[in-house]
Amino acid sequence: MPWIKVLHIATLLCWCASLLYLPAMLLAGARSRGASSFDLPVPIILRFVFTHIATPFALLAIMSGTLLFIVGQIAMGWLVLKLAAVSGMVLCHVLCGGLIVRLERERHRFLLPASGLIAVTSAVLMLTVLVLVLSKPFV
């Protein structure tokens, strides 16, 4: 069981990092609208990070977390709240994918506020998960 926990924490850290990175890159891509300091255009980099880094880590984090509470037979009140917060993080992940598609199609309307809102919401949800896991209320 310890290796499952290590896998879960490692993949969760990578997913959370990419979930904060994607909105920041979306903001940069929406602002630049032309010349980029990168060799590749921002939408191509974003799509790569989303499909090859963020999504696999998200899936591994969710699968290892599910395995953790199945193997450990954890069914407490705090877990329901944690799963609700993780569901919110999944929604933010999906919304990032939608914003990447909008950026690729040159639809910049509402891209800046949406990216900022996703970044703030993701950070709050990550903090909520951290507090719930460390404090384990309702035990």
UniProtKB/TrEMBL annotation:
Group of enzyme by EC: oxidoreductase
Main location per the UniProt record: membrane
Presence of the UniProt keyword Oxidoreductase in the record: yes
Cofactor comment text: Binds 1 heme b (iron(II)-protoporphyrin IX) group per subunit.
Transmembrane spans: 6-28, 49-71, 83-103, 110-134
InterPro entries tied to this protein: HemJ-like
Reactions mediated catalytically: protoporphyrinogen IX + 3 A = protoporphyrin IX + 3 AH2
Places the protein is found: Cell membrane
Signal peptide as annotated in the record: none
Cofactor annotation: heme b
Membrane topology: Multi-pass membrane protein
Keywords recorded for this protein, A-Z: Cell membrane, Heme, Iron, Membrane, Metal-binding, Oxidoreductase, Transmembrane, Transmembrane helix
A Pfam family: UPF0093
Pathway stated in the Swiss-Prot or TrEMBL entry: Porphyrin-containing compound metabolism; protoporphyrin-IX biosynthesis; protoporphyrin-IX from protoporphyrinogen-IX: step 1/1
Enzyme Commission identifier(s): 1.3.99.-
Protein family: Belongs to the HemJ family.
Function text: Catalyzes the oxidation of protoporphyrinogen IX to protoporphyrin IX.
The protein's name: Protoporphyrinogen IX oxidase
Organism this protein belongs to: Billgrantia bachuensis
